Amino acid sequence: xxxxxxxxxxxxxxxxxxxxxxxxxxxxxxxxxxxxxxxxxxxxxxxxxxxxxxxxxxxxxxxxxxxxxxxxxxxxxxxxxxxxxxxx
Length: 88
Fold this sequence. Notes:
The chain is about 25% helix and about 20% strand.
């Protein structure tokens, strides 16, 4: 069974129309001069890692201000691999 995690912030928020785009590789919503730099790779990498482990990530609006990122993944794969390694 997966465990659900969330991270919230009090930033500017992410418009609903951009909520899928932010998980694409090298996608940024602002130019470098606005809100710091970055390559736009971070969330795409997180999504790929989570999907590799059978999980998912999505973002929702924070009712106060900002965004809430929800994500889950399964840990049984890692546990099974560790048990197999220790058995050798």
